[in-house]
UniProtKB/TrEMBL annotation:
This is Thioredoxin, mitochondrial. Keywords: Disulfide bond, Electron transport, Redox-active center, Transport. Residues 3-129 form the Thioredoxin domain. InterPro entries: Thioredoxin, Thioredoxin-like_sf, Thioredoxin_CS, Thioredoxin_domain. GO terms for molecular function: protein-disulfide reductase activity. GO terms for cellular component: mitochondrion. GO terms for biological process: cell redox homeostasis. Transmembrane segments: none annotated. It comes from Apaloderma vittatum (Bar-tailed trogon). Belongs to the thioredoxin family. NCBIfam families: thioredoxin.
Length: 130
């Protein structure tokens, strides 16, 4: 028999060093997306990314840091387009990184590509209504 192993978190963020980042989560499947993004009372930033995407590796941690600074006023969902092609198609993601701002299940804003911290902060403040 195999020795019991500690369960591994699916798709653990190998490239992120931030700790205690509960405002960020990886989307597991369509119903998870529905529950935690579409039906969420809080605004959610959705980061459509891919493992092979260089700019995504820069934007992801930068966006996570900016979301964490909002102290729970906004959440961040990470969607790997290779794992969730259906969601990428549904939300018309044609390039990565694509970031959607969602409020009450509706896409209220979006951008494609890398943004600097000032631009990300403005994007988040607009979403939160700050």
């Amino acid at each position: 028999s195999l020795a019991p192993r500690a369960p591994l978190a699916p798709y653990s963020r190998a490239f992120s060093t931030s700790t205690g980042c509960r405002s960020t989560f990886n989307v597991q499947d369509g119903s998870d997306f529905q529950d935690r993004v579409v039906n969420n009372p809080k605004p959610v930033v959705v980061d459509f990314h891919a493992q092979w995407c260089g700019p995504c590796k820069i934007l992801g941690p930068r966006l996570e840091k900016m979301v964490a600074k909002q102290e729970g006023k906004v959440l961040m969902a990470k969607v790997d387009i290779d794992d969730h092609t259906d969601l990428a198609i549904e939300y018309e993601v044609s390039a990565v990184p694509t970031v959607l701002a969602m409020k009450n299940g509706d896409v209220v804003d979006k951008f494609v590509g890398i943004k600097d911290e000032d631009q990300l902060e403005a994007f988040l403040k607009k979403l939160i209504g700050a």
